[in-house]
Amino acid sequence: xxxxxxxxxxxxAAPLLLDGLSMLEYRGYDSAxxxxxxxxxxxxxxxxxxxxxxxxEKTDAGKTMPGCCGIGHxxxxxxxxxxxxxxxxxxxxxxxDEMGSEVVGVHNGIIENYAEIKQKLLKNxxxxxSGTDTEVAIKLVDYYYRxxxxxxxxxxxxxxxxxxxxxxLALMFRDYPxxxxxxxxxxxxxxGVTEGETFLASDVPALLQHTRDVYYIDNHQSARLxxxxxxxxxxNGDEVQLPLTHVTWNAEAAQKGGYKHFMIKEIHEQxxxxxDTLNSLIRDGRVDLSAAGLSHDQxxxxxxxxxxxxxxxxHVGMAAQYVIEDLxxxxxxxxLASEFRYRKRLLGPGTLVIVISQSGETAxxxxxxxxAKAMGVPTxxxxxxxxxxxxxxxxxxxxxxxxxxIAVATTKAYSAQLSTLYAFAxxxxxxxxxLGEEKYAALIGELLSLPDKMAKTLQNKERIQWFAAxxxxxRDIFFIGRGLDYALCLEGSLKMKEISYIHSEAYAAGxxxxxxxxxxxxxxxxxxxxxxxxxxxxxxxxxxxCRARGAYLIGLAGEDSREVASFADFSIFVPExxxxxxxxxxxxxxQFLAYYTSVSKGLxxxxxxxxxxxxxxx
Length: 618
Ligand code: AGP
Prior knowledge:
Strand 13 and strand 14 form a beta hairpin. The longest helix has 22 residues, at 437-458. The chain has 618 residues and is of the alpha/beta class. The chain is built from 19 helices and 27 strands. Helix content is 36%, strand content 23%. The chain binds 2-deoxy-2-amino glucitol-6-phosphate. 2-deoxy-2-amino glucitol-6-phosphate binds at residues 310-313, 357-359, 362, 365, 408-410, 498, 614-615.
């Protein structure tokens, strides 16, 4: 997620803005920039790629940018490579270096329909210097400001009516020195007002050193900020009063949005991560893979798929294998990247290699990508970091829009990857003629219902928290399931191992009697994943075999399978959706189970021992 800050008052703005951005660094970023105005002089804009210290050095800690009114930004790239040109602030002038631009602004969020708006603005004489959606939004405000000549709030409101997506925007207008304008939809934005000074930020940590009393702007509201004053407006341009909220959090808690750990915050961010990812892939009821440069002809030519990844990303591949093979009737092989890179690779004609990676920097996955490319095989990367090595080197890229993931144990990126592969499989099945229009539309409808169903699943955590505390001293935990439930078990087991340090294994339920069941003894926890109704009874039988040896049974199923409660010692139910997508809902209770077990044991949830967020070495 990007971070935005703003200040207008009677002190030098630049140093305050840099301080504010430093408090937002936890949000992850690849570039930063400032726009500062000294009285009525043209607004100065300075940007720097890389860490914030580069911008601090470039502006001599803000000393080279005099003025008491300004905005700042740290960029987490979603549209456009992470580079100087795409860094914010962006301006309404056609040339990035032009001084005295009418509108200067910074943005956190995603403008989904930026491409169509860009075409409209090009027809109206605008030229674009960057590849960002933000530049389009700012030029659109400028367009309305010049066309209707009513004022900033009017122009902003017209922009809000026209764009689709999420935004927290901070803007400065040449005709309004000393003032900052803001607008919000879905992306966070808070305003702080003290004696003679007004502050704006994406998040509370950037304001806490100045004030604990803040205004939270609501969706489709805008603001006009002057030194020591804030005025808020609704979409009609009428002034509205907002309640003042007193923040009790400290800075560290504020960076976690009031959550105790980044992991629990990111678990709760999954509906938004999946929503943003699906919105980038599905338009007007159709999956659109053109952003990855994958044409229908290229999809139709796929004869087999080789998925390569590590860890949780590999678990996504395991789930995708079942979904793609079932929907598309295309053979899929899933391989650990660390194995793929060293084995004899038999990639026949028509093979597509898909590399899945949150960081886009995992050494084994990058090496596997290079090995595939060396064989002349087309490669598709599914990654969460724009401009990462895997993203840059793959032939095609589909970005997950989960935002930066701080906790070592992945959750929202995993879910965003799953939704990306679901959409890919649905489109491939359609192109391959394996899916009629009615079934296609039904699958798309279920895909788009996932964020709401995930949000509903997130509400059911208290029972799991209670259960986790009771079983935090378990010695062994087995996750068993068949088909997609087995893929789900792989991820549930890794989550548990990673952050609670309890030995855990995931097993194809039918495999237990081939050896592992000898480990089951009195009190062993067996978690049976039962979301796939066509094999539910089979897995129940396997669970019964475990109970006969003294196991404690947990059943995890869709809410239509209430019979599970009649034999499991502890049952968890999630909302129903298409069987192919049930894993996206059932993983949430397993994430909670691992999280609360780790918390019960007093462990470092966000930074588990021995682990790194991205394994960039072999
Ligand atoms: C998952 O919780 C772990 N952090 C780990 O297994 C991770 O999924 C794996 O290292 C792959 O990382 P990547 O997605 O960045 O390539």
